[in-house]
Amino acid sequence: MNRIRIIGLVLLIIGVVLHFSFDNGGADFLKGLLIGGGGALLITGQIKSKK
Q1: Where does the sequence pass through the membrane (predicted)?
Q2: 0.85 surpassed by pTM
Q3: Is the CB of residue 8 less than 8 Å from the CB of residue 37?
Q4: Which runs of consecutive H residues, i.e. helices, occur in the chain?
Q5: What is the 8-class DSSP label of residue 25?
Q6: Which residues fall within 8 angstroms of residue 42, CB to CB, at 6 or more apart?
Q7: What's the pLDDT band for 31 if we cut at 50, 70, 90?
Q8: Residue of 5, 10, 15 lying closest to 36 (CA atoms)
């Protein structure tokens, strides 16, 4: 597992923990951003696109 995928996994875990710990309407955007970004980094394993 490379560093980018580990960062993605950490972001995903933080987003899920925030989802279950806070029931605030203002934090929904942050939770979605963390979960979406973490999932994308976990799947792709890279930040830049290869050409």
Answers
A1: 7-23
A2: no
A3: yes
A4: 3-21, 28-44
A5: G
A6: 5, 8, 9, 12
A7: confident
A8: 15
- The phi and psi torsions of 50 (rounded to 5 degrees) equal -85, 140
What pLDDT sits at residue 1?
Answer: 72
Residue indicated by tokens 């792709």: 44
Contact between residue 16 and residue 27 where contact means Cβ atoms under 8 Å apart: no
Longest dimension (CA), the chain: 42
Distance from first CA to last CA of the chain, Å, rounded?
A: 23
In order of 6, 32, 38, 47, the CA distances from 17 in angstroms are 17, 12, 13, 24
- Checking phi first, is residue 45 left (phi over 0); if not, alpha (psi -120 to 50) or beta? left
